[in-house]
Each structure stands twice: as C-alpha cells, then as structure tokens.
Write a structure and sequence with these properties.
single chain; mainly alpha; Actin-binding Protein, T-fimbrin, domain 1; globular; microtubule binding; CH_dom; Calponin-homology (CH) domain-containing protein; CH_2
C-alpha cells in the first residue's frame, strides 16, 4: 500500500510498514523474558505486555499475576487481569473483540 493508506483487517485498521518497524524497534529496547520470534504468538498470553508495563511502571505490575499460557482460557484470564488491574489505572480499556484478537494471534492485534 501507499503512504497513509489504511488497510483493514476485520474492523481494525492495519498499520503500515514504517509504523510497524517503529513499534518493533521500541519493543526490542525493552528487556523481555522471552525472545521475540512471532510477535502475535509471543504476546498472545499477555505476559510480555505485563513485562513492558513493568519496565516503565514497576510499582504497577505484580508479575506473578501473569503466568505463561497456552490455552485460550488462560490467555483470556491474563488479558482480563491486565485490563482490570493495569489498563484501567492507565486510563484505557481493551474491548472483548480486541482481547479475542490478541488471544487468537490475529495479525497486528498486538502492535495496535
């Protein structure tokens, strides 16, 4: 796509390559407990997002609340915990549709 062109995946706008590269470079600067191989899968359980928040706001995050997860139910539990314990305090909330996209490793769900 051209500059500024908005692509959609479902109802969610897709980011262009420049935006994606900026996000990936930013994430690469943060020490994470697992290597970033497939960003959709690596971030699907919410653990690395909790680590990113903890990097900037260590007092906000209790990492023991976010166990690594493979099942959809446990991933959703982690994201709901992030939503209630962290994101609410940070003045935003993710919708059920967004949580579902994250747990199901949909393209660009994490990056947005």
């Amino acid at each position: 796509g051209g500059q500024g062109e908005q692509r959609k995946h479902g109802k969610i706008e897709m980011m262009d390559d420049d935006e994606l590269q900026r996000v990936y470079q930013w994430v690469d600067e943060i020490p994470l407990s697992r290597p970033k191989r497939n960003i959709a899968r690596d971030f699907a359980d919410g653990v690395l997002v909790a680590e990113i928040v903890a990097h900037y706001f260590p007092k906000l995050v209790e990492m023991h609340n976010y166990p690594a997860a493979n099942s959809y139910a446990q991933k959703m539990y982690n994201w709901n915990t992030l939503n209630l314990k962290l994101f609410k305090r940070m003045q935003f909330q993710l919708q059920k549709e967004e949580l579902d996209a994250l747990c199901n490793c949909q393209p660009q769900a994490v990056e947005r």
